[in-house]
Amino acid sequence: MSGKRILVVGPGELNADDRKIWRDIRTAAGAPANPFMDPAFTTAVGQVRPQARVAVLQEDGCPVGYFPYERGLSGRGRPVGAGVSDSQGAVLRPGIRLDARRLLRACGLASWEFDNLEDGQHVFVPHAVEELASPVVDIGAGFERYTEGLRRSSPAFLKQILAKERRLARRVGEVRFAYDARDPGALRALMRWKSAQYRRTGRRDRFAQEWITRLVELLARSEEPECRGVLSVLYAAGRPVAAHFGLRSQTVLSWWFPAYDPAYGKYSPGLVLQLRMLEAAAADGIGTVDLGSGPARYKDSFKTRDLRVYEGAVVRPGPGGAVHWLGREPARAARRFVRDRPRLAHAARRVLAEAGRLRDR
């Protein structure tokens, strides 16, 4: 249409005006201040992923939207930071209407696959094949109000965490929690524990991919108020026993990489850390902790509600679209089949864990 065009640039080409407009659009749309949807996250990914791009939508020469993505072989597109991005989509000024396939054509993409598309993405939701629950913890009213609700909904759960914290202190040594630790040794320990957990459960080790390690280290040094890393550490007798590295904006903390030292597993240090992290985050002005999609019993115990996220793909007709379908859709359908059958899903997790155990022998 006359007056409208789409420019494709590298994340490093976004200037201060672009970052302000991007954030203003998010605010005007009433979207949550999720750090994964901030321009600082896209810029950081661009420093470790050369295939990262941003489509800038302009109307009469002024930006009205941004679409971050990565372009792979045969024009297969993925969200920026795919594999570790917990919130995905385009940033569009309210009222902007856009055809998803037209956008892909302008970006040189045959397809664009998503697995954590945020709610309200009217351009892409029609292409979703599955709606998933993404639990969050609301702590804007304060930690005491939150724990009052937790005692009502799951009194035994809270008592068990506090009892294990006391037991850890008695049997190991003084327990100390740091909400925003600047401890490179603890960050390295966290990545070792998480790698071991991935292998133990038969999953792909994300920290075996250099770009993810570099991204985490980069964000750990960030001073961006709307997207910076927060390393929280639980210490016992002066040594780290559990840690979490997440991303925060001024009001949202995204749960990202939690792990603990298996030697202290009987004390549930991960749960103790999460409870103390919620307490500290509430005191620091965080209103929502986004636990991310994916099943986990501890998420169900801590959450106050669920957000909706979507999984699916936009596919343009043609050879590139066929390559996407053949490469991804059968596997996606198989995962949905297993996930929708709890007994089968449990058996699959056992098989993955056994495979991981045998691999580490």
Automatic annotation (TrEMBL):
A Pfam family it matches: Acetyltransf_6
Cited InterPro entries: Acyl_CoA_acyltransferase (IPR016181), BioF2-like_GNAT_dom (IPR038740)
Superkingdom of this protein's organism: Bacteria
Gene3D superfamilies referenced in this protein's UniProt entry, alphabetically: 3.40.630.30
Residue span, BioF2-like acetyltransferase domain: 160-299
Protein name listed in UniProt: GNAT family N-acetyltransferase
Organism: Streptomyces griseicoloratus
